[in-house]
Amino acid sequence: MDLNNRWLRISAIIVMAALQSTQAFADDLNAANTSWIMTSTALVLFMTIPGLSLFYGGLVRSKNVLSVLMQCFAITCLASIIWFALGYSIAFGDGGSMNAFIGGLDNIFLAKVTEGSMAGDIPESVFAMFQMTFAIITPALIVGAFAERMRFSAMLLFSGLWLVLVYAPITHWVWGGGWLGEMGLLDFAGGTVVHITAGVGALVAALVLGNRKGFPTKAMPPHNLTMTVTGAGMLWVGWFGFNGGSALAANGDAGMAMLVTHISAAAGSLAWMMMEWRKHGKPSVLGIVTGMVAGLGTITPASGFVGPGGALVIGFSAGVICYYATQAIKQRFKIDDSLDVFPVHGVGGMLGTLLAGIFASDALGVFSGQGYNEGMDMLSQVSVQVTGIIATATYTAVITYILLKLVDKMLVLRVDDESEVRGLDLVEHDERGYDL
Questions:
Q1: CA distances in angstroms from 106 to 78, 112, 128, 363, listed in the order given
Q2: In the CATH hierarchy, which fold is given to the domain comprising 30-429?
Q3: pLDDT digits (tens, 9 = 90+) for 361-406
Q4: Rounded to an integer, what distance in angstroms lies between the CA atom of residue 59 and that of residue 73?
Q5: What are the residue boundaries of the structural domains of the chain, listed by start?
Q6: 328-361 pLDDT tens trace
Q7: Three-state DSSP class for 305?
Q8: pTM over 0.90
């Protein structure tokens, strides 16, 4: 009887401890915030597949449409596993004495992410998954620079290495406790982390691979603008999770981020459309959706810091400046950044990061934002923003170039001329996008 009583007491203690642990977890958990970040995670994944896939797929020639869809889908899968195995730990782990520059390996294979572990008032599993979707879309953006000419195997190896050696460390610099975040860099949702890295990486890739056969003398129009507009609409909707979710809470910051995101996208679309209308006499569908992406990318770093008035200026500036950047890259410098990744995302990311340092001010009347951190004024904030732009662009350019040369030695980056003429759908995947 004594033995039975002893086991009953032990069982009761275990049950009580479990209940207390569960209660403690429940007390720390904010259900509203958790629900919003889970929703935002789905929205950001929706941006890559199907959003970006369709957007890019429609812009290439019909003989390469499947190759672009395949690249975006494969990067989604590869980046997810790399983020689980290594990327999350490098970006958000404790780097010890090197923490200013890189996270440690203390959380490889998400070793410390349990059902009860928390990131603020949301489960760490939700935070890790949300950040995973950013790690997915960033290398996928680069696909647009080397579309129609890069070998699939080389693309996979390059994208995986780039995620580990470029994206994850810069994420740590800005959001993981690194030196740029400590300096006070304003990057709410990825102007430096996502858009500058992807844009600069794309420019380097376009330069290293060289132009497509026939560029710039041969016309290479999009094969299916209906597909592109469909993808653009998905990107616009998904971007509310991208920017609004970066508040990591269902609060006023998230609401304002969504509002300014929408205003900037609309302003960017109209500005780009007007630039084309003025130059060519007619507005184009391709122009208005490209302006939308420019407006979205440019507001991204500023979205949690500026107000609606500032967003209007940022979006309009994005439409005009990114339009001219696109013309300069292809017409003046003859660089075949096939789907305009650098002039839209790279230039947009730089512009938005810079303007975040201006329109975050609370002293600009109707154009005011939430105000600077204590001890910061406009001059000091802009100085930090410029430092972040230069450091991110320089590091990305150097490492991207090294990786491309390394992959070229190992696998050969580019398909041969005959394969490029036949199209990557048949050469790389033995399939056709259309069989009409």
A1: 21, 8, 15, 44
A2: Ammonium transporter fold (1.10.3430)
A3: 999 999 999 999 888 999 999 999 999 999 999 999 999 999 999 9
A4: 17
A5: 30-429
A6: 999 999 999 999 999 999 999 999 999 999 999 9
A7: coil
A8: yes
